[in-house]
Write a structure and sequence with these properties.
Two copies of one chain form a homodimer. By secondary structure, the first copy, chain A, is of the alpha+beta class. Chain A has four helices and six strands. Chain A has two domains: 73 residues, Winged helix-like DNA-binding domain superfamily/Winged helix DNA-binding domain (Arc Repressor Mutant, subunit A, Orthogonal Bundle), CATH 1.10.10.10; 45 residues, no CATH class. In chain A, the strands form two sheets. A three-stranded antiparallel sheet of chain A has the order 1-3-2. Chains A and B meet through strand 6 of A and strand 6 of B. Chain A binds a DNA duplex through helix 2 and helix 4.
Chain lengths: 136, 136
DNA sequence: ACTTACATTATAATGATTCTAAAGTAGTGT
DNA sequence: ACACTACTTTAGAATCATTATAATGTAAGT
């Protein structure tokens, strides 16, 4: 739950101009109580409904990637033809419902500590992600 | 390390006709000491080198999907524009080298037991996969 | 206001994957 | 061996997500 001014500041502070389109997208992504999982297609549909003058698909792609690079969005590793993004950028894991293609957050505390006992010389661990596939 | 007859039997026993193309692909995939991680593109290149009369790309896709459905191949969850497959169909995890896009197996024993403390009513856990992203 | 670098846009291009429908082949029965 | 049928392969077209292009628009500093 944030307001327009907060978005404007955040964008400016990360070197992104607070354009009409970016603020519109911020509203959809971050004016929520829960975290939001989405594909570009889903985001695009929501934006179409919300406003009369729709935002170009290219801009949605650009913005989502800009937000991902600034760590305002996280991309989730799922093999699907589409990319999934998450407004929760903290270290956490996911359920993936194979029937509905829905993602559900697993808090860090929902998953026991994960010990990686193997090391690859000269490589650093960037992230450890658990994907729990479920279906009915 | 298996021979042609073994492949023929395995294919027949799962209702797949042992065609020239499928046997050729079996050789590339399973006549190895270590497990093999690949994309369709990589597999296609290897097959092109191996034999004069190349196998159609559509057949490679068909075969890989048929093998995946019969549980002779596993698809790995990575968000990439391409799909990755693994000849190791057992329950195990992966390192993904973000610099080289290379996959490395983590034996089940290389990762501590993963406890999923959250349950989703009416849903069964189909798999639990850990992806450890690394880079230099 | 003027300028400039950054953004948006419609459209085209790309690239992986899937579809199509025609030609080929394996396996069965004769 | 021969014929039949269902399954396979194939080249090429189609599809779909994503990225590139290049022209137009806009934010923000001077």
């Amino acid at each position: 739950m944030e307001n327009k001014e907060t978005f404007v500041k955040k964008l400016r502070s990360s070197g992104l101009r607070p354009t009409k389109q970016r603020l519109e997208i911020c509203k959809v992504l971050y004016e929520r109580d829960k975290t939001f999982h989405f594909t570009i297609e889903e985001l695009s549909k929501i934006l179409k409904k919300k406003s009369k003058k729709s935002i170009s698909l290219a801009t949605i792609y650009n913005t989502v990637h800009a937000f991902k690079n600034k760590n305002y969005l996280k991309e989730i590793s799922i093999n699907s033809n589409k990319s999934y993004f998450d407004t929760n950028v903290s270290n956490h894991h996911h359920f993936f419902n194979e029937s509905t293609h829905e993602l559900i957050d697993l808090k860090d505390t929902d998953v026991g500590v994960i010990k990686i006992k193997k090391k690859i010389p000269g490589k650093k661990i960037k992230s450890v992600e658990v994907l729990v596939k479920i279906s009915s």
